């Protein structure tokens, strides 16, 4: 099946990245947000990222303008009705996603494929809210979307072969490298990454080393691009906590349980880079580790 028209639900960190890479790859994109303020913020994020790509010499100004012209911004869910593929990238909450998928199922053309960017829920639970579970799949992108090469393409028990093959081809058309995964919570990356991040928080909690030294250990010792506590701040401590709760509820294994320190940071609003404070204070340059 050929994908030309793409819809994106949510223009936050992940949604705006998906909009950007799809528009650059030549797809006609419509992105929907729930209110004017979020839509404006999403538009500004896409614009800033495209400008940054031009400033870095990665994208010609004319290609930025062509990509921008391919993006439509809307608050109307019905504007996604004629899409070949809709990718949902809203908050990690099953009920919210199920409601949206049910609404999309009623609105969208019969041929429309519905994809979720969920990072920890099982796709089939979302697909079950529709009458087209054979045309529902997971397309899990990584942050920052313009940089990270991976897309996990998730096939549920109900996903048809054609839907799955189309998802794989779409990821490649974006210039990404797809990895096929089963529909198990966390797929490949978060199944392995989340316990690692939680262990780093437990190490900080126990005072094994200072925050910068835990990070330096993994950057210098394993050549990771950023240390685990910096990565927690980058992903968002609230998002990480939510993912951990979902994985823990699914597997009942202690390694997925959010450590108390993570919950305390979230309660204090130390959500990470987006809040200006998490394990580090981002008002300083370079960021300074905060006390725990
Ligand atoms: N948009 C576009 N390009 C970006 C970018 C963004 N938001 N952030 C960084 N870049 C580009 C820069 O332009 C730069 O490109 P050049 O080398 O061509 O100049 C390159 O990426 C490196 O950036 P910087 O030099 O500014 O900074 P850096 O070297 O520290 O890299 C990073 C930043 C790419 C984020 C890197 O630190 C990294 O890869 N970190 C790990 C990210 C990661 O693990 N992501 C997965 C998170 S888990 C997830 O997303 C899934 C989930 O479900 C939770």
Q: Based on the coordinates given, report the CATH architecture of the largest domain.
A: 3-Layer(aba) Sandwich
Order of helices and strands: EHEHHEEHEHEEHEHHHHHEE
Give the helix level as a range of percent. Answer: 40-55%
User: How many domains would you count in the coordinates?
Assistant: 2
- What is the rounded distance between the termini? 52 Å
Structural class: alpha/beta
CATH class of the largest domain: Alpha Beta
Structure description:
This protein has 292 residues and is α/β, with parallel strands linked by helices. It folds into 2 domains: 5-182, NAD(P)-binding Rossmann-like Domain (Rossmann fold); 190-283, N-(1-d-carboxylethyl)-l-norvaline Dehydrogenase, domain 2 (Orthogonal Bundle). 46% of the residues lie in helices and 15% in strands. It contains 11 helices and 10 strands. The protein has helices spanning 13-24, 36-55, 61-69, 94-107, 123-127, 161-173, 189-205, 211-222, 228-235, 237-251, 260-267, and strands spanning 5-9, 28-32, 71-74, 85-88, 113-116, 136-141, 150-155, 177-182, 280-281, 288-289. The chain has an 8-stranded mixed beta sheet, with helices on both faces. It has a two-stranded antiparallel sheet with strand order 9-10. Helix 1 (13-24) links the parallel strand 1 (5-9) and strand 2 (28-32). Helix 1 (13-24) packs across helix 2 (36-55), helix 7 (189-205) crosses helix 9 (228-235) and helix 7 crosses helix 10. The longest helix is centred in the N-terminal third of the chain and has 20 residues, at 36-55. Acetoacetyl-coenzyme A binds next to helix 9. Acetoacetyl-coenzyme A (CAA) is lined by residues 49, 56, 119, 142-144, 146-148, 190, 225-226, 231, 235.
């Amino acid at each position: 099946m050929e994908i030309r028209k793409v819809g994106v639900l949510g223009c936050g960190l992940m949604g705006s990245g998906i909009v950007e890479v799809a528009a650059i790859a030549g797809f006609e994109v419509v992105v929907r947000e729930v209110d004017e303020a979020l839509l404006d913020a999403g538009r500004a994020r896409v614009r800033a990222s495209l400008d940054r790509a031009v400033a870095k010499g990665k994208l010609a100004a004319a290609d930025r303008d062509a990509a921008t012209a391919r993006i439509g911004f809307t608050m109307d869910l019905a504007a996604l009705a004629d899409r070949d593929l809709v990718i949902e990238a809203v908050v990690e909450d099953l009920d919210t996603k199920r409601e949206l998928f049910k609404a999309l199922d009623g609105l969208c053309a019969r041929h429309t494929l519905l994809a979720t960017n969920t990072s920890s829920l099982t796709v089939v639970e979302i697909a079950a809210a529709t009458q087209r579970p054979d045309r529902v799949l997971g397309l899990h992108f990584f942050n920052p979307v313009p940089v990270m090469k991976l897309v996990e393409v998730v096939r549920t028990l109900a996903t048809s072969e054609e839907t799955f093959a189309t998802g794989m081809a779409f990821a490649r058309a974006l210039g990404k490298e797809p990895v096929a995964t089963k529909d198990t919570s966390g797929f490949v990356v978060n199944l392995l990454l989340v316990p690692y991040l939680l262990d780093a928080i437990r190490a900080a909690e126990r005072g094994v080393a200072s925050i910068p030294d835990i990070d330096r250990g993994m950057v210098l010792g394993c050549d990771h691009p950023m240390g685990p506590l910096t990565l927690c701040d980058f992903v968002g401590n609230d998002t990480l906590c939510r993912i951990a709760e979902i994985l823990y509820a699914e597997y009942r294994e202690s390694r997925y349980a959010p450590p108390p320190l993570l919950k305390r940071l979230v309660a204090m609003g130390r959500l990470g880079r987006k809040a200006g404070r998490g394990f580090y204070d981002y008002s300083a340059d370079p960021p300074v580790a905060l006390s725990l």
